[in-house]
Amino acid sequence: MARTAYGYITPENLALFTDLYELTMMQGYYNQSHNPTATFDLFFRDLPPNRGYMVAAGLEQAIHYIETLSFGERAIDYLTEHGFDEEFLSHLATLEFTGDVRAFPEGTPVFANEPLLEVTAPILQGQLLETVVINQIGYQSLIATKAVRMRDMVRRHGDGQSLVDFGSRRAHGSDAGVKAARAAYIGGFDGTSNVASGELFDIPIYGTMAHSWIQSFETERAAFETFVDEYGDESILLIDTYDTVAGAKIAREVAAEKDVDLSGVRLDSGDLTALSKEVHEILEETDIFISSGVDEFKIREFLTNGGIGAGFGPGTALVTSTDAPKVEGVYKLVAVERDGAMQPSMKLSTGKVTYPGAKSVRRVERDDEYHHDILALQSEDCNGAEQLVSVVEDGTLVYEFPDLQSIQEHAMRTLSKVPPTVRKLEDPDSYDVRISPDLDTQTSVLRRQLERQLT
Amino acid sequence: MARTAYGYITPENLALFTDLYELTMMQGYYNQSHNPTATFDLFFRDLPPNRGYMVAAGLEQAIHYIETLSFGERAIDYLTEHGFDEEFLSHLATLEFTGDVRAFPEGTPVFANEPLLEVTAPILQGQLLETVVINQIGYQSLIATKAVRMRDMVRRHGDGQSLVDFGSRRAHGSDAGVKAARAAYIGGFDGTSNVASGELFDIPIYGTMAHSWIQSFETERAAFETFVDEYGDESILLIDTYDTVAGAKIAREVAAEKDVDLSGVRLDSGDLTALSKEVHEILEETDIFISSGVDEFKIREFLTNGGIGAGFGPGTALVTSTDAPKVEGVYKLVAVERDGAMQPSMKLSTGKVTYPGAKSVRRVERDDEYHHDILALQSEDCNGAEQLVSVVEDGTLVYEFPDLQSIQEHAMRTLSKVPPTVRKLEDPDSYDVRISPDLDTQTSVLRRQLERQLT
Q1: Do A135 and B168 lie within an 8 Å CB cutoff?
Q2: What does residue A437 show for φ and ψ, rounded to 5 degrees?
């Protein structure tokens, strides 16, 4: 079978994970000696339906990509075959990022039009980054947000139930599987079932058993007995293969017979709220874990209807963010060097206007709650706490990435400051993001100037 | 920065891309010397909303995984740290797949409950595969299906418009980016903008230019001129940065001035149908390419309203299958060796019943159209053409994977045989999948037998 049959994206071919037009433009910039410094903003023009905020995530992966970016032999060979010029490819082969990056720290709530990432670099470099940074930051932010919505429901209606990502098999490919686990952890999850994510990101891993274990034995009782023989007190038994209530009784008998305190039982089908109560009657001291179709709405329903559970295992809904499977991150040129100075830039495309210029995001709190943000020019004097931190300067990493645990703590702390009406699961209020006077003026002036050129 | 900051799934850690419970169960099977032969079916219990069929895809990746699966040092070290037994891990370190796999060829329409993949192997091996095979086949089938829906609209309402995947940046991670490109190609696309997919899977790559190219020059005209200087007749100019109609006129002037026949212009915002007609008035001989929010519904609307376009570049809607972002593939034990013979097996979990036993899928045609399928026991004598082919026997690959082009041709041929009412974009009819007499009897008998055990 060919080397590429599985189709891995690895350090060897990651540089090719880009849209062809980025390389086409880069060659044009190179050959035409047009390489001005440019500033690009990565932002969400609109938030997905029923999202009053998004949680920033994926920065570490985006920066790692930027810092280690390189076109090796395999990439250069492919581009040679596809007609790129030798001289441009020689330049590409030695390309390194020499610019600046500012960003929202991971785990921080962000709102529409706020730059999650701002890149200032020679346009040839800045252009190339577009595809990967949107891909990584967009997806992880989508999932961190979905995770936070679930954790928020547990915080409001529950008593510290655990949340574990069970979604790998339904994620959109293997990268989504591991990145969802990471993003979910940022969003307040306790861990993942995905072993590779555990190894890659040092996330706690959890697991129980599948129906196939039960079915592979002649009886459910024999299956439970064998598992308990193997795992003792650590056993979590899946009790819904044939009949959940009957399964709970057998689990109780097996635990008694083998003299173990089960770590728990798992319910994976049926009316989970009602069944959890019935099972609790039978297994009073045993933790009940809930899987199957779990999302933030199901968690709320389960908890507010008196369901009894020690933890939830969301899967598909988490890793595909099923109710809102996309967030349209864009990476737009907002300023470009002209005659030796940075000039604001924008496009006028219908319905797709961007705010020009390098920016500052100021967040103003009142009574320990976020009150409003101000989207301003970077140079502007403004109230509120600056949200963007400097991550890379002149190509050098100047930011110390927090460990995931710290990012999670930051996410939980900042989540508490998002107004409850903005955190609503359905029809949340819009958070107040104000445009600063200078940014507003700059936008109007530039718009008029561009419109004049049209006539 | 740590080696794992980007978090790649590579041959080195792919074996860990599994749910912890698979390994927990495998250790249990191993230590308890319980390793019967088992048959697992991968199938979709229900098709997603508004899907009358799914197109099978991802088999080659799933099989490559199965055939090359290995736990290397890095994986074994991690599992050692996480408390797995040394003896079991020694076994794991030498594990190779020795079983059989049957499957639907890629590009074939499949329906609910039909096994896309059937694995028969010692349970310890068969169990491990679950996470990756669902992940790869589930996602690629979802996207191949989405792509086919778009190609189907072009076949019905258009005149051979090209379709190019522009979705990488909005895909759920990098693996989704490249696998979406592959699946879209299977589903009738002409190519992708993703360079890595081109290199990995030998898919044609396409690209134009971004708004940033335009904005980086003082005027749109200067931007067009410079691009045309670089790329001549191959230029495709993006004309909506400031005003689409004005952009078209400038493009015409630049083409005349530079004496080139533009390869095309791209529209990326506004009322695309109306604008395409206006632009066609200005640039009669120039191909118009349409991007921005393209999906099968937009394509239908554009073409039936007389929009003028030579090609479409679907992005987010394609790679996230936005209207149906999940398909719940399951991998269920359907038979297990007991007393030396394979016995059918099923669970009774509410709403999640499976058909027991190794199966055959027969497809019956009438007048060159699919009429009904029969889901039967593998051993049963039945009408219709067998859909499952043997792919791996005793661990050895016995199937020659067609190249992607051939898979696409197969997909286009078989799509034409799916009844039009089943192919409808909204509220499609259910295709008739019949349960064979023997499978029906076996299901009822086993169900009664299991229910008797409960009482």
Answers
A1: yes
A2: -55, -45
Interface pTM, i.e. ipTM: 0.97
Q: How much of chain B exceeds pLDDT 70, in percent?
A: 99
Helix, strand, or coil here: A341?
Answer: strand
Using the predicted structure, report yes or no on whether residue B246 has a pLDDT greater than 80.
yes
Chain A residue numbers touching B20 (CB-CB < 8 A): 193-195, 198, 205-207
> Are the Cβ atoms of A194 and B60 closer than 8 angstroms?
no
- Any idea what DSSP says for residue A59? H
Cβ contact A78–B22 (<8 Å): no
- Domain assignment of residue A48, yes or no: yes
> Cβ distance A111 to A373 under 8 Å?
yes
User: How many other C-beta atoms can be found within 10 angstroms of the C-beta atom of residue A341?
Assistant: 8
Residue partners of A103: CB distance under 8 A and separation at least 6: A56, A59, A63, A115, A116, A117, A118, A388, A389, A391
Q: Which of A13, A217, A246 sits opposite B196 (nearest CB)?
A: A13
Mean pLDDT of chain B: 96
Residue B281, judged by CB atoms within 10 A of its CB (0-12, 13-18, 19+), counts as exposed
For residue range B283-315, list pLDDT tens digits in order. Answer: 999 999 999 999 999 999 999 999 999 999 999
8 A C-beta contact, residue B194 and residue B205: yes
The predicted model scores a pTM of 0.98
Examine the pLDDT at A140 and tell me if it is beyond 80: yes
Structural domain boundaries, residue A343: 14-144+326-353+386-425
Band the pLDDT of A4: cuts 50, 70, 90. Answer: low
* Structural domain includes residue B75: yes
Nearest to B209 among A16, A24, A68 (CB): A24
B34, B199, B292, B316: which to substitute to probe chain A, counting the most A Cβ within 10 Å?
Answer: B199
Cβ within 8 Å, pair B347-A214? yes
Amino acid occupying residue A447: R
DSSP one-letter code for B357? S
CATH number (domain holding residue B92): 3.20.140.10
pLDDT band at A349 (very low <50, low <70, confident <90, very high): confident
- How many domains is chain A built from? 2
Instruction: Based on the fold, state whether residues A242 and A201 are members of the same structural domain.
Output: yes
Q: Point out the residue among A6, A212, A350 whose CB comes nearest to the CB of B61.
A: A6
Residues A405 and A288 both lie in one domain: no
